[in-house]
Amino acid sequence: MQEWLKDSVFYEIYPQTFYDTNGDGIGDIKGIIEKLDYVKGLGCNAIWLNPCFDSPFMDAGYDVRDYKRCAPRYGTNEDLKNLFETAHQKGMHIILDLVPGHTSDEHAWFKESCKPGHNEYTNRFVWTSNVWDSPEGYRFVCGTTDHDGNYMVNFFSSQPALNYGFHKITHDWQLPADHPDCIATREALKDIMKFWLDMGCDGFRVDMADSLIKNDEEKEGTMALWQNITEEIHREYPKAVLVSEWSCPKRALKCGFDMDFYLDHWGHGYHSLFREITKEGENRSFFSKEGKGNAALFVKEYMEDLLATKHDGYISFITCNHDTPRMSRWMDERELKLAYAAIFTMPGVPFLYYGDEIGMPFMEGLVSKEGGFSRTGTRTPMQWNGEKNCGFTTSDAPYLPTGKPGETVNVEQEEKRADSLYHTVKDLIALRHKYEDLQSDGSFEVLYVKENEYPFIYRRGNLAVMFNPGAKPVEASLPGVKAGQETIYSIGEASLQEGKAVMGAQSFALVRM
Ligand code: GLC
Ligand code: CA
What is the pLDDT of residue 138? Predict the structure, then answer.
């Protein structure tokens, strides 16, 4: 496992809405360079940068037109190189967003592929035998090109699926993964990765990593493909890291990813902790003050994943990401403090989404921007201060609106307020850097969890980490546990006493055992 991940805390930056330096209303690479000290000041020592490549932006940049060119609206390749170098000088790492599953329908490969007949790029994408052939169970775009076939899409219709082959062949137009044209796709992907690694980036977040090989329910083909890629990348770039958008650590970490995200999927443990909102609008998340959650569901799933992947890589907890509603949509400041306390005290490598450190709101009711749809409210500009557009841009036409200064949070104000969420986040990250027990590799043992009950207590090395997010005080019997020696950090009233934990309403404590 990569040495530098042992004490890494990532910050996710959505480039279009982070910081605009040239007044065109869109964030840029120079803006990120200017704000590196801010990110470092929070305690984050690594950055995941969402797609910053040339694109028609039908899916906010996840529709790549040229993998080797910085989108002009963000800057140049030279700016990116500068970003890597400046970050490294500050002891930070930068990973880019790799989109291996599909290109934009404006990518040069796809344009070639769309030509009639057969050429070098025809099989770079997945085509049926002719336009009348559109088998069920797949998503195709039909009859929009001169090529006599329908192309498979991976996400939106503007995102044709790259062809890495099929695990089970069920139709004559499907190629096996070891077909030379599928291998050519794989090698083209490695070439893109090496291009940016050579320029100085530190690795990649890998988009829809589980989607590459088709007809692959058990993901055997996809895993073999990644095994091949990660092995070569790690051999040639021993310090590069890869984090997968897969949300299945048992698979992702087994085929060479260094980290895998827990994503916000209904019914999953991560979801049940932070975003379990019923159809009727009732908050049943464990970290809501309603006290109606169930941490036991999370523990069962997590322990299984943790044990199965211990020596392979890390599970990554996120405060949010660009696809997920910000927790602040349903949680107040105190609830967020406790929720983040969990995220920053778990094993693995945590990720903080820009703006979550100040509890930036999920903006309701926005018209979709660049394929954002219901995700748009999570992607609004970073709110830096109380000036125009909250200091994001001087433009009259920002990429997306910010909240109104005076009515919403901003960094400047939260830095000044001593008991703000911002300071809690900073404190928690600082504690993680200070205590090795809290870092990626530190041990994890559950001390107390019961179905539909509070509190939830775990142990990291010599530290007890205790949570009672509910509004009612609780006690938990912990036979054999001695009174805590020292409370290192707490929110509200909580202590470890002889044989039990005593916790006030909405409390958290980090106690030496
Ligand atoms: C991933 C990205 C999402 C994008 C999709 C298609 O889920 O996180 O933003 O729209 O893949 O690339
Ligand atoms: Ca700009």
Answer: 96
| Residue type at position 227 | Q
Q: Strand runs (DSSP E) across 181-236, as ranges?
A: 203-206
Which atom number of ligand 1 is nearest to the Cα of residue 101? 12
DSSP string, 38-76: HHHHHT--EEEEPP-EE---SSTTSS-SEEEEE-TTT--
The whole-number pLDDT of residue 460 equals 98
- Residue 189 in contact with residue 202, Cβ under 8 Å? no
Instruction: Report the distance separating Cα 494 and Cα 489, nearest Å.
Output: 10
- pTM of the complete model: 0.98
Mean pLDDT of the chain: 98
Which residue is it, tokens 């790492």?
A: 93
Q: Report which of 393, 387, 382 is spatially closest to residue 73, judged by C-alpha positions.
A: 393
Q: Which ligand 1 atom is nearest residue 63's CA?
A: 12
Q: Would you say residue 247 has pLDDT above 80?
A: yes
pLDDT digits (tens, 9 = 90+) for 395-444: 999 999 999 988 999 999 999 999 999 999 999 999 999 999 999 999 99
State which of 155, 320, 353, 373 you would mutate to test the pocket of ligand 1, scoring each by most atoms of that ligand within 8 A of its C-beta.
Answer: 155
Give the number of other Cβ atoms within 10 Å of residue 339's Cβ: 23
Residue given tokens 């997010």 in the structure block: 469
On whether the CB atoms of residues 436 and 449 are closer than 8 A, the answer is: no
**C-alpha of residue 217 to centroid of ligand 1, in Å:** 20
Separation of alpha carbons 493 and 268, rounded Å: 30
387 CB-near residues (< 8 Å, 6+ apart): 405
The answer to whether residues 350 and 435 touch, using CB atoms and an 8 Å cutoff, is no
